[in-house]
Design goal:
Length: 228
């Protein structure tokens, strides 16, 4: 732990403490801190930030914190704590924004389809309550969106670093590895083959946000002194 940058260490500790606390509090913690669909009565603005510190299982938090340590540490060492924290939180918010947009488009698509069939408002409302139950009451948690932003930044800074997938133990350079896993997320997001309740578009949103920030910083040559 002594070799981990302080900001990465503090983020990991905060995530672990919140996860342990949520196990004692139970569903109340997820009602308050997990991200809900904006039209859900449980939605609050702060959830856009707090959801990325919540996790659904031990394996979920272990995977995300391992990724934060592995890919976030070299970035935090180069950037410093303020710049890294800004990047991490921004990509987490970007992940939430895209996932919520996808939910909205799915619901709107159902509404338009019902309107085209001549349904009246009361019938549409009743149908939506049934069809979009999982969307209205979904609880999005996890640092995965922010982690995908960190992965993109890592690929920007260390494009030739060799990485391996667990199920494909072949070294792949970061500049190819990151686009590959994004293509996989897009495939699972648009198909019915998703491996569990995974917010694939949140991953994409975090990655796109990370790419845009890195592109802007590179174009405007943001230096370290701006963030210290």
């Amino acid at each position: 732990m002594r070799n981990i940058p302080d900001i990465v260490k503090h983020l990991i500790i905060l995530n672990v403490l919140i996860f342990i606390g949520s196990q004692f509090v139970g569903g109340l913690a997820y009602d308050v801190l997990a991200l809900h669909y904006p039209k859900n009565d449980l939605f609050s603005v702060w959830q856009v930030f707090t959801h990325m510190f919540m996790h659904g299982s031990i394996s979920h938090i272990l995977f995300n914190m391992f990724g934060l340590w592995m890919f976030g540490s070299p970035l935090a060492q180069m950037w410093g704590k303020n710049k890294f924290l800004f990047f991490y939180l921004s990509t987490g918010v970007g992940a939430a924004a895209l996932q919520l947009l996808v939910y909205h488009l799915q619901i709107q698509g159902w509404v338009d389809d019902l309107l085209s069939q001549g349904f009246v408002f009361d019938e549409i409302y009743a149908s939506l309550q049934q069809q979009t139950q999982s969307l209205f009451h979904v609880r999005m948690v996890g640092a995965s969106g922010a982690l995908y932003g960190v992965l993109v930044a890592f690929a920007f800074m260390f494009p030739n670093a060799e990485l391996m997938m667990i199920f494909l133990p072949i070294p792949i350079k970061a500049k190819y590895f990151v686009p590959l896993i994004l293509v996989m997320d897009l495939f699972f997001g648009f198909s019915s083959y998703s491996m569990g309740p995974i917010a694939h578009f949140a991953h994409v949103g975090g990655a796109v946000t990370g790419f845009l920030i890195m592109w802007y910083w590179k174009r405007n040559q943001f230096n370290q002194n701006r963030w210290n």
